[in-house]
Write a structure and sequence with these properties.
This protein is an alpha+beta fold and about 725 residues long. It is about 25% helix and about 25% strand. It is built from 17 helices and 30 strands. The strands form 7 sheets. Strands 3-5-1-14-11-12-13 form a 7-stranded mixed sheet. It is globular, with a radius of gyration of 27 Å. It binds dioxothiomolybdenum(VI) ion (MOS). Dioxothiomolybdenum(VI) ion binds next to loops.
Length: about 725
């Protein structure tokens, strides 16, 4: 079988296997599913952020044309709670009169058409007994959670080391709320057949949704089927089981017909989570030679009134640099805000902005090149665990990036590089990321026609999972890619891991690796006692595969085709199951390395007009083995665009008095457009990672991380102005 070290780092950039389906409209997104007797639901949302519903009059809505039901807390049945886990679902909706955030659902209207439902929803009259919402970080009424993720870390004595350091630096950095805006409006289509529920949804974790809905409606898990063959983007918004999904299922059960619920764009701003604002204080101590002696990083982020949000902002600082004295602390402050949730690189996107900005500031204080400063403090082993990394090529990221970018042309002084009216700035950021490998299961089947079917109940959120898993399966089974189909997006398939935390490729790839190996074993078992087979008595480690055949390693002629074995033994197909769990770090003696990266950015600033343009981005990424150069490059490009959005455009504005989100449309919430996106170069370096048998890390989020600091650092280099708050908007440049 394959030995990771012997395969190419970067796999062939084959086109997406699902590309033709997407461009011909044959790919069915949640919104494309319909039923002959489909009814439609529309939501009514709270217009206050805190208090209680004092009056709810649904009579006009009830009498509105086409209306089948109006469900409120006054007539909704009691719903169960989804299980508590790292991505726990919000509490079920319509269970009381309490309002905890603006946009909380107070009613769902079901009608024959979407227009009728929307029209009737407007006729629901709600009055509130509003209380003054807690909306500010510093509101003394706000509950503060310390160390909410149990990831706070401490090594050495940062306080003492700071007090005696030759050079110290301290600053506070802030980021604002951002809202996930996948192109596909989140849609749920729910249909009941007796006590059995089928749901089409935009989830990133179908198996979690199945479990959650079973609990909410108190039915067996076997009675819930989640179908999600395609989604129009996720980025974290699809990680949790949102109240609107529960409401679609409740609406369908109430009216006894299938129901479709499509969120509007404004509803996406209150209904599928957001990246939380942060305020982060960084203290760094260093010697004159640039050696770090202490880092103290404390982050405060926001949290909705109930439930949790895994968003560690400071903890990544513990393993970013070799530094003897480090303290990292996260705090969360409960506010009357909409649900806080992962939005690409949760925590790290914000935390890296603070750390990598502070490192840049320190480089000026010390008069050391920013790249050189990072290399002087390079963490050769995991500084917190004291173990060698399972892989780390961050140094190569810096070196290759500097070369490709032309970092050596940078003049050290701010405002020293110009092109006509434009000030030019070079900035960089280093990234040491994490990923989450999760337990995952898959099956692999080889059929008599020589094709293979590999399956797992995961989602492809547009990242290329269909493609890369077909590629991987083809390689592991020794088949041509067109002969392999990877099927996903159906909870009747083996339970799959979450498409999140940059971990699906590692989780699922490992499960497929196991399934394919077991499948080869199955074939060997069949021929074990067959004296006519050249493979008789062979163990799986003694064979190689290729061209649809298994043969003895080193003797290609001593083998048999899968199809011949099936025919000879009267079988139509053979299947095998595979499961994976994350390896144990201590057992392996390796620190699990996430992907690493270096981001080099050139900005141009017109100081008279306050214009800021990103002119070039060079990203060099160590994500272990890359299964498909094309889809991985697309991931990094997409992440980089998201990072430019976070750095320069995106801000979810909450009205400080009412808690209303004031810019919940694409007209008002700015995201980058093509004209904002520069030339972007992406390269992959490093070696296959040693933490999983496939050698991959993850590319889903690292493209975004680092962009905030790299752009802010470049802006400082261009203008001499240090911007410590994202987004970097025109007003901050004047
Ligand atoms: Mo990601 S923010 O884990 O989809």
């Amino acid at each position: 079988m394959t030995i990771v070290e012997q395969i190419d780092l970067v796999g062939e950039g084959v086109d997406r296997v699902d590309g033709p389906l997407k461009v011909t409209g044959a790919a069915h997104y949640p919104n494309d599913f319909s039923f002959p007797d489909l009814a439609h639901a529309a939501l009514v949302r709270s217009t206050v952020a805190a208090g209680r519903i004092s009056r709810l009059d649904t009579s006009a809505a009830q009498a509105s044309p086409g209306v089948l039901a109006v469900i409120t807390h006054q007539n909704a049945p009691s719903l169960g709670r989804a299980p508590d886990n790292i991505l726990s679902a919000p509490p079920p909706p319509l269970q009381g009169d309490r309002i905890l955030h603006y946009g909380q659902y107070v009613a769902v209207v079901v009608a024959g058409t979407a227009e009728e439902a929307t029209a009737a929803a407007r006729r629901v009259e709600a009055e509130y007994e509003a209380t003054e919402p807690v909306l500010d970080f510093h509101d003394p009424r706000a509950e503060v959670l310390t160390d909410p993720f149990e990831l706070d870390s401490s090594r050495g004595d940062a306080g003492t080391a700071l007090a005696s350091a030759e050079v110290t630096f301290e600053a506070t950095y802030t980021t604002v709320d951002n809202t996930n805006n996948p192109l596909g409006l989140f849609t749920t289509v729910a249909a009941w057949d007796g006590e059995a529920l089928t749901v089409h949804d935009a989830t990133q974790w179908p198996v979690l949704l199945r479990t959650a809905l079973a609990r909410v409606f108190d039915i067996p898990e076997s009675g819930v089927r989640v179908l999600v063959p395609f989604v129009g983007g996720g980025f974290g918004a699809g990680l949790r089981v949102w109240p609107h999904v529960m409401l679609a299922a409740l609406a369908a059960r109430t009216v006894g017909r299938p129901v479709k619920l499509v969120l509007t764009r404004p509803e996406m701003f209150t209904g599928v989570g957001h990246r939380t604002a942060t305020e982060q204080r960084l203290k760094i101590g260093a010697g004159r030679d640039g050696r770090l002696v202490a880092i103290d990083h404390e982050s405060t982020s926001t949290l909705q009134m109930e439930g949790d949000n895994f968003e560690p902002c400071a903890s990544g600082t513990a393993y970013a640099y070799a530094c003897p004295n480090v303290s990292t602390r996260d705090r969360q402050v409960r506010l009357n805000v909409t649900w806080c949730n992962s939005m690409r690189a949760p925590g790290e996107a914000q935390g890296n902005f603070a750390l990598e900005s502070a490192m840049d500031e320190l480089s000026y204080e010390l008069g050391i090149d920013p790249l050189d400063l990072r290399l002087r403090n390079y963490a050769e082993s995991h500084p917190q665990l004291g173990l060698p990394w399972s892989s780390k090529a961050l140094r190569e990221c810096y070196e290759v990036g500097a070369e490709r970018f032309g970092w050596s042309r940078r003049l050290p002084e701010p405002r020293s590089m110009r092109d006509g009216d434009w000030l030019i700035g070079y900035g960089l950021a280093g990234v040491s990321f994490f990923w989450f490998q999760k337990p995952c299961e898959a099956t692999a089947t080889l059929r008599r026609d020589g094709t293979a079917l590999v399956r797992s109940a995961v989602t492809d959120i547009g990242t290329g999972t269909y493609t890369v898993m077909a590629q991987l399966s083809a390689e592991l089974l020794g088949l041509d890619l067109p002969r392999v189909t990877f099927e996903l997006g159906d909870t009747d398939l083996p339970p799959g891991a979450v498409a999140g935390g940059s971990g699906l490729t590692a989780s699922l790839g490992s499960a497929i690796h196991a399934a394919c190996r077991n499948l080869v074993q199955e074939f060997l078992d069949i021929v074990r006692d067959d004296p006519t087979s050249p493979l008789a008595g062979c163990a799986v480690d003694e064979v190689s595969i290729g061209r649809g055949r298994i043969h003895r390693t080193g003797s290609p002629e001593r083998g048999e085709a899968y199809t011949d074995i099936l025919v000879a033994h009267g079988l139509t197909e053979l299947s095998a199951y595979g499961a994976s769990t994350p390896a144990d770090s201590r057992e392996l003696g390796l620190a699990p390395a996430g992907p690493f990266g270096a981001k080099f950015v050139e900005v141009r600033v017109d100081p008279d007009l306050g214009l800021l343009r990103v002119a070039r981005v060079v990203s060099v990424i160590d994500a272990g083995r890359i299964l498909n150069e094309k889809t991985a490059t697309s991931q990094i490009i997409g992440g980089t665009v998201g990072g430019i959005g976070m750095a320069m455009f995106e801000e979810t504005v909450t009205d400080p008095g009412s808690g209303r989100i004031a810019n919940a449309t694409f007209g008002d919430y700015l995201i980058p457009v093509n004209a904002d996106i520069p030339d972007m170069q992406v390269s992959f370096v490093g070696r296959p990672d040693r933490f999983n048998p496939v050698g991959v890390k993850g590319v889903g989020e690292i493209g975004l991380v680092g962009m905030g600091a790299a752009i802010a650092n470049a802006v400082h280099h261009a203008t001499g102005r240090r911007i410590r708050s994202l987004p970097i908007t025109i007003d901050k440049l004047f």
